[in-house]
User: Fold Cytochrome P450 from Streptomyces boetiae.
Amino acid sequence: MTTIAIDLSDPEYRLNPFPTYQVLRDEAPVHLVPEGTSEGEDFYVLSRYEDVSNALRDKNRFSNEVMRGRFDMPMMINRDAPEHTRLRRNANRAFNARLVLTLQDWVQTVIDEVIADALKGDRVEWIEDVTATLPLRVVGDMLGIPRDRKDDFRRWSQAVMDMFAVAAGLDPDEVPGFLEDLLEFGNYMTELAIARRKEPNRDDILGALVEQQQAGNCTQDELAAMAYSFVAAGHETTMNLLGGGMHMLLSDPALAKRLVDNPDLTGEFIDEYLRIYSPIQWTLRRTTEDIELHGVTIPTGALCHLVIGSAHRDPRQFPDPDRFDIDRENKGEHLGFGAGPHFCPGAALSRLLSTLTFRAYYPILDRLSLDPQEAPVPRSRQGAYGLERMSLLVSP
Ligand code: HEM
Assistant:
């Protein structure tokens, strides 16, 4: 087995992992990082498209119960069948009940309000004021969370991401206070659900989840965990798509013109963006048996990083993979929303929100430009890819 240094805490790897991905795919498609987590646990890195795709779909040999007692919330993403199947059924019921078609007009209104606010001055912090605000407002409203809790909400959402990163090997000292934030969030969702039981049924996700709980389909803890899974999973991911997408439109005038002239290509743009800059770069699984792959035996119970971001740059699947190509025929084969039993239940909502948001960007692109005084700042969070800050100049 080739020795390739992967240091999860190295900023270079977090900000530009793509050269490392290439070496991994070519030289060590199953790569052991000895004692790679902060607790000194070994992990294995799978980096080729076929292997990542197969592992995501193989629920029998690759378990989602990765946390093993540490920060082990009853969230769908931490569970295998049959528990996962039950939780997922509740989520699908709650989520699909009023999704896409019924939400379109309301989501459009939220987007119009947020963008109109952002254009009021001559400079705007696009990530903070637009792309972080939009998913929080949409998912938060659907969960019945009051808008004046926006700041808490961001903190809580970040805490859940931190929990995953710590479970994957990040030193907890890098994210102080995340456990307290998590508990606070759980308690808040519980209070909200209890209060909701006394109110008339409102047609939103929290209402649907409370109904599921009252029907005995999930416990109070599971309800709270479900609600904050939505917030955590939907916030940073969508924000990274909407922020990175704006950056791309402002940096590539030919692409921007093509989309302005053909807004119906927005779905293609979203898929190719998700392929090349997957907001979720990797996810975790644990093997349930010894697995032989590319001459390596991954032992039973081993932690595996499935590197979606690398799978998307695998030339075995996507020719000339580092080129952004909106006309790429198989771009829809990306794993940006996952695959198999844990495929993202928020995919339809994200597609709706991002399609409407990009279409709202097109008519204002000629009023916006990147601030030459302040270069965009990439996010350096583990496993996530996107922009932390992006200052834009606004002309009247
Ligand atoms: C661009 C936006 C989004 C991206 C790129 C994304 C990506 C993903 C991916 C890759 C997974 C699978 C992870 C795995 O198998 O380990 C996933 C699962 C999940 N996503 Fe999303 N997501 C997005 C938006 C959303 C939204 C808006 C919501 C909810 C409001 C959401 C809720 C969830 C949940 C609850 C899961 C876990 C499902 C399960 O374990 O069965 N996501 N997402």
